[in-house]
Amino acid sequence: MIGLEDERTKDMCPICKTDKYLSPNMTFLINPECYHKICESCVDRIFSLGPAPCPYPKCGKILRKNKFKKQIFDDILIEREIDIRKRISNIFNKTEEDFPSLDEYNQYLEKVENVIFNLNNGVDKEKTEEEVNKYEAENKIEILEKSMRESQKNSDFTKYQEAVERLKQEKLRIQKQMEIEDIQYQKQQQQELLDKLSSSNTANSDEIIKQQQSNMQKRSQFRKRQLQQLTSQLDQNFSKNNPLTKKEVDNEPKAPFTPFQGDRELKKRYELLPIPRDVDDLLDIDNHADETYQDPYVNKLAKNKEYLGAGWRLHTVFERALDEAFMGLGCFIEKEKMVS
Amino acid sequence: MTTAPLKYSKSKKVGEGTYAVVYLGTQISSNRKIAIKEIKTGMFKDGLDMSAIREVKYLQELKHPNVIELVDVFSATNNLNLVLEFLPCDLEVLIKDTSVVFKSADIKSWLLMTLRGIHHCHRNFILHRDLKPNNLLLAPDGQLKIADFGLARSLGNANEDLTSNVVTRWYRAPELLFGAKHYTPAVDMWSVGIIFAELMLRTPYLPGKDDVDQLDVTFRALGTPTEQIWPNVSMLPQYNALRVYPPPSRQELRNRFSAATEKSLDLLISMTQLDPSRRCDLTQALLHEFFLESPRPTEPEDLPKKKEKRVKEEDDEMNKRFKV
């Protein structure tokens, strides 16, 4: 029975007895003085002529219309704690940077929590309230300054976030534009190739195609570099104009990053003759033979298309042979033993 | 024969494979935890299984913080025992454990350690040929160590045929799928690229159901190779262009790896180039800008660890408290 009763009173204004079931548009308001729930039309009716006592029986607190607000949390206790928290944190609004050490800041935070707890649970309520008022009166200017500073910070941060977003958009836009240009260029090139092929004799068509392909490759590499340059330029401009990004750089590394942890041979003990790496040059290795090593056996392998397809390359054979020949030179076993 | 003083103690069996049983043990002189791999003999026609020989041969040569340490090899009563560093966890376990969160700095750190280990193998001209998260073990101090050299081999003569039937299917490079017999260290690089992708996705990147499906899955994700992007691909023994998929655009990759930065995508792309001669090598990968951009790789000791262990530690702590 009690449950049913609760259910009914929950959606009913106790003053005018209007029911949410019959008038679904009604809304309830509360006042942080006493947190009694009153419907919007009653608030209008009772408080529009100025402050008046709460209409709940045995309450009688004087309420003002402008303090009424919508309830956010279902649990009225939580609603009240949040209100207290809001009020207190506007008064005790120091941040970590106002304290010389973390310990002192923590003590301050604990003090604030104590005040909130006391007010919320009615422990020494009057005394605490008095303390808060005293603190507010004594530190009025400081509190104002701090709140100005916080609002400044917030607006700086939102500005920064907006700038980051704009930078991202700009990068994307440039890249897309370049992609479109590339596609157009490709089409145009294909058309040209077709024209050339149809106008020339069949003998050198292979050559034309090859030339075309190498041109395309060169161009795409060039474009890649161009894109990289553009984006890095944007990045630079961005970090120059933004004070917030610089801060991050300041906290950076204590020790430089070492990809190999110092364990890499930087200087080979030999110098290689130029060895062709390009597939076309390798297939034509006999014409390059006088510039590089004379090894008819390996050179024959270098032309094998199956080897080439699997990623096999002539220069790795010579590099490995020389590496293995020099491996262990300059390595002293006694020293190595000491290390391990 | 005189009995030598006991150097190792064997405590419990922790696993069994086709050719070996693994026991947990301790090195008596240092009280260090070790794993003893007892190789089964007599069941193979040549006496010992090939992979055991490979494992001993290459691990004896390699010594690096990111390669598993072979402490000792001994034989007792007609069997062969490998004494290895004891490593309690592997990367696959962590990837599958959804309660563990990977930060981008963690992924960077694991990738970095993997690359360092393989760089050491490659500069000694040893190919691992079976890289997968399951074979990347994690030490208690967070160091990642490359293990299982059962398929490793060193590069031989320039004309020597290598078998293309290596590497677990999901991590197999396209030239191997096409049956290439003269492949290069780039096959390991491919595996690392796929592992990198798996670390970001937390699920296998190219899970082919069988060898034919693996080709399809690979090319669906990365495009079908053509003579243009991979010269002479059609000369490979088992080449076939089943279905032609276009290469993925940058935007598609961005969508697939939503948390990846542009630099990490660059690295991933150069590690997973279809043409092995265009794939980056280990030195290039380690020098990539990805490792220089923020955030810095996590220090090994701060990397995420297996959850289970933490529970156990808590239990231990609880027990201690109760005793007190």
Automatic annotation (TrEMBL), chain A:
Protein location: Nucleus
Coiled-coil portions: 125-200
Gene Ontology CC annotation, any one: transcription factor TFIIK complex
InterPro entries, per the entry: MAT1/Tfb3, MAT1_centre, Znf_RING, Znf_RING/FYVE/PHD, Znf_RING_CS
Gene Ontology molecular functions: cyclin-dependent protein serine/threonine kinase activator activity; zinc ion binding
Annotated ranges, domain RING-type: 13-58
PANTHER family in UniProt: CDK-ACTIVATING KINASE ASSEMBLY FACTOR MAT1
Protein name per its UniProtKB record: RNA polymerase II transcription factor B subunit 3
TrEMBL record, chain B:
InterPro entries, sorted: CDK, CDK7, Kinase-like_dom_sf, Prot_kinase_dom, Protein_kinase_ATP_BS, Ser/Thr_kinase_AS
Classification via SMART domains: S_TKc (SM00220)
Record's keyword annotation contains Secreted: no
One GO MF term attached to the UniProt entry: ATP binding
Extent of Basic and acidic residues compositional bias: 296-313
Location of the active site: 130
Region (Disordered), start-end ranges: 293-324
GO cellular component, one term: chromatin
UniProt keyword annotations, A-Z: ATP-binding, Kinase, Nucleotide-binding, Phosphoprotein, Serine/threonine-protein kinase, Transferase
Binding residue positions for ATP: 14-22, 37
Domain Protein kinase: start-end pairs: 8-291
PANTHER family for this protein: CELL DIVISION PROTEIN KINASE, CYCLIN-DEPENDENT KINASE 7
Protein name as it appears in the record: [RNA-polymerase]-subunit kinase
Protein species of origin: Suhomyces tanzawaensis NRRL Y-17324
